[in-house]
Amino acid sequence: MKFDRIAIIFQRLRKEFPYLFRWLVPGIGVKRWLFLTLMGTTLIGIGLGIVLLDIYRTAPQTWWLPLLSAASLRFLSRPLRAFIFILFGLVMVFGGIYGINRSLMIPFIKPGKKVVDELTVHRRRERGLKIVAIGGGHGLATLLRGLKEYTYNLTAIVTVADSGGSSGKLRREMGILPPGDLRNCLAALSNDEALLTHLFQYRFPDGQSGLNGHSLGNLLITALAEITGSFEDAIAESGRVLAVRGRVLPSTLQQVDLVADVHLPLLTARLRIEGESEIPRSSWRVKRVYLQPNAPPAYPEAIKAILGADLIVIGPGSLYTSILPNLLVPEISQAIRSSKALKVYVCNIATQAGETDHYTCEDHVHAIEMHVGKGLFQVILANLPPQVPSDGDMEWVYVANSQKLDYIVIKEKVSDDTHPARHDSVLLAKSLLAIYQRLRG
């Protein structure tokens, strides 16, 4: 029975041995503290050794002295004694450190996960690329959901020109910046707090007086803006509530409205439409969009993030109502041009009714160039169109002739198989990081 137990212990050690060595993998920040612990233990051992030597030399012959001699293994050779004591000391130090870490980390480790796995992932993401994503809507949230698996150094810069839905109501009634797109990005960056994130995204059904159509997250941000006294502090506090790794910043803190000039068929005149939510409802081709007031000042933290980025991603998102409202803030566009980061434009997979009907990838790029000039990015990432036919008013966005584009055009499958008109967060993030490695690695 005793030998069976010993065999089980050795099998357990053999199984755990590779796992224990993972604590010594470079980059997780453990070896330096382990070395410090071993040095401290060594000094304690030297001190105890000096005391024992003194006892051996000066103590009278008593009954316990032979027992102490046997416990110190004096009947063995000195090299063998040193090896045995060092081996047992290392096992005890490793076991003690492991036990302390496990006890301290239990409240923070997910069931079925090991401490070293979580620590390795955390350190890798801490040292990840500094990425700035610019846009709005569900496209930007999808991008962030994929990138957060690779880095904590994420900054989302979001438009504040929203005028419809819950955000529009709060903007008109409370006078705050529209929180909708910022809320979506905060939820996308949350640290897997599933229930809290769903609560933050919960929208009250129609027909409830006072709460009709409002999102709980929008109401929370509005309340925090009243409590803290500033909209930017409200966003920061919301991020803490959701355990967000990264930042979500507005492109400007000034109240702005989006205005579009649309082309009327068979007429040379143009019609002006005011309000971000009204633009997609028109069935006419958008010629140009503006911000009112013109040239609002950029949020300084957004400028700082852009200038310090390794990778800047523009899109995906609605061309005229999510992407361009950010780029029309002059200081944002200037900062992108001045940044030494690799800049990638992610083209939409499908056209958007009322905004980009019949648009190709070239049309999307031309619209950006017409509004803010050329040279804003170096690379275009376009989806390989799905084999399934498009439905309704939606069409796939094709790269008709990449030679007409003065950019590096990369075509890869980044669409979601279950929803072909949307980007897949995992594929999109992997493609962007592969592009960075290929061009800057």
Notable features of this structure?
7-stranded parallel β-sheet; 441 residues; single chain; 16 helices; 3-stranded antiparallel β-sheet; Rossmann fold; alpha/beta
Can you walk through the features of this model?
By secondary structure, this protein is α/β, with parallel strands linked by helices. It is 48% helix and 12% strand. The strands form two sheets. It has a seven-stranded parallel sheet, with helices on both faces. It has a three-stranded antiparallel sheet with strand order 5-4-6. The longest helix is centred in the N-terminal third of the chain and has 28 residues, at 31-58. The protein starts with a helix and ends with a helix.
Count of alpha/pi helices: 16
Question: Are there runs of 5+ residues with pLDDT below 50, and where?
Answer: none
Report the CATH architecture of the domain at 128-159 and 251-256 and 292-440: 3-Layer(aba) Sandwich
Supply the helix-strand structural class: alpha/beta
H/E element order = HHHHHEHEHHHHHEEEEHEHHEHEEH
The helix content, as a percent range, equals 40-55%
CATH superfamily of the domain at 128-159 and 251-256 and 292-440: CofD-like domains
User: How would a textbook summarize the main sheet?
Assistant: 7 strands, parallel
Distance between the first and last residues' Cα: 58 Å
- Cα-based radius of gyration, to the nearest Å: 30 Å
- The shape, in one word, is elongated
